[in-house]
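Handout, section 4.2: multi-component inputs.
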Amino acid sequence: MNAIIVSAVFGVLMMFASFLVNNKNVYRYLAIIGLSVLLLANILETYAIWSIKFDSFLQLSFERFGLFFNSIAIAATLFYVLLSGKDIVRVGNYSAEYFVLIFFILCGVSLITSYNSLLMLFLGIEIISIPLYILTGSDKKNLKSNEAALKYFLMGAFSTGLMLMGIALSYGAVGNFGLEGRGVVAFGGSMRVSFLEVAGLLLLFISMSFKASAAPFHFWTPDVYEGAPSVFTSFMATIVKATVFIGMIKLLEARTGIFGPTWQIILPLMIVLTLAIGNITAVFQQSVKRMLAYSSIAQAGFMLFALWSANDMGREGILLYSVAYTLATVGIFAVLVKMKDYTFDGFNGLAAKQPLVAASVAVFVLSLAGIPLTAGFFAKYFMLASAIKSGAGVWLLVVAVVFAAVSVYYYFRLIQAMYFKEGEAEMFEQPTNSFKGMLAIFAVLLIVLGIAPSLLFNYLYF
Amino acid sequence: MPIQYYIFLALALFSIGIIGVLTRRNAIIVFMCIELMLNSVNLLLVAFSKMHHAEALTAVADTTIGIDAQLFVFFIMVVAAAEVAVGLAIIVMMFRNTHSVDVHFLNRLKN
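Output:
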């Protein structure tokens, strides 16, 4: 419960800081301190050293997996603020409020990783979504940002409606909001799964696929990710998306088997569709930002494998996947924010001007493509291996590998532009040494995890 | 009244909301349709709460089963209010820049 309370408290503290202090750098340092304390508090709870305890009346349950994912999300946010904090401050006039909203999002993240009742799931999703609508529209004078915010808001509120209907139908069938959902069974009182519950959970699943941008509910993603200020796109494409997958895994594990044999058709279909739409459309993009938006859909396709397999290896895989994907995407976006031209051509000749930055971006891109010796490779490997363990058809894996090969094409265009093309890659400002250092740390982390992924899992179990 | 009536009423309201979201062009009306969806859920939850409560009463004389759905309704209201605050702000921001609240006007991000 530490993460929930401490993040909310720091959110409020930052709000006070916004009118008591009038120095943008102070906001950034406060946010970094806050995130460090939050990380520490969460780790202390993970190892049962110190934690704030309230009786949550079975609304929340804290277990190792969720707490560990909290640590990942908070650490990733800390790295994100360290890397692009200066760009966050620069988006608009209300610098402190952006950090406030990020803290509140982290509160929602820790609710989703620990919910034990559908009420908390709903609140968690909303606490994540509402600040995100604001962050998307934070570049107020920019029409693209406005449009993205409105689109995201309408789509998000619509999917909230679907989620609530799902929860209501499930409640009607089961008689409580518990995650396990096996209390009173209405409609005859037998223990059979009722039609209402299946319909309800299907709606719930659809609305969460909206948030996770899995096809066929992905259509808002490219527009919103492109229109939102780049710094915030990187946040919502990584940490938030991974969190939604954790929520989905918890839900499907608790009510396993509810969809019956049709599930074996629906989910693989969704996986294939997500992979196909994400990868094939990304090939045709000229803007790196839009390419990354489609690539985030494609990566969601791989994360869906963890839902399908629903075993321990899938759980480990989704953790590794979130780390690998988050580090790489946040890193690329941090560089992208500094570029003047967002197209592939804008990166031409970056290697000659900024060798270290270009090398780090190359590592990120290799990791996203899943090349061995980077974390992305093991992340994809764990996903596919866990699916095999649960008896996936070989055809599904072949499709996944083929699309991973397709993704190499558009990821490597970036490397090609940086290393093999002549050009003036123009940046708004010369990257500072600390920025370069952080990028290098990201790249080293990705390579270390690519050699020894078990380093991460050790913390999950010990 | 049997519970089916409430379910059908709620589903009808919900469907009207969905159809409105999908077909209307005015952002405010789309927003109102979303509110309609949320409120149909409130109605359904209260009806289910009453149903489960009545069922539990036949077994135990003094029971609180079914209360949780009514509590949920309050949470939905609070969240809907928060969403209205943010949503109307976004729509106003849009209107200031484009002098229109037509959602079909939103096509700058295509291509």
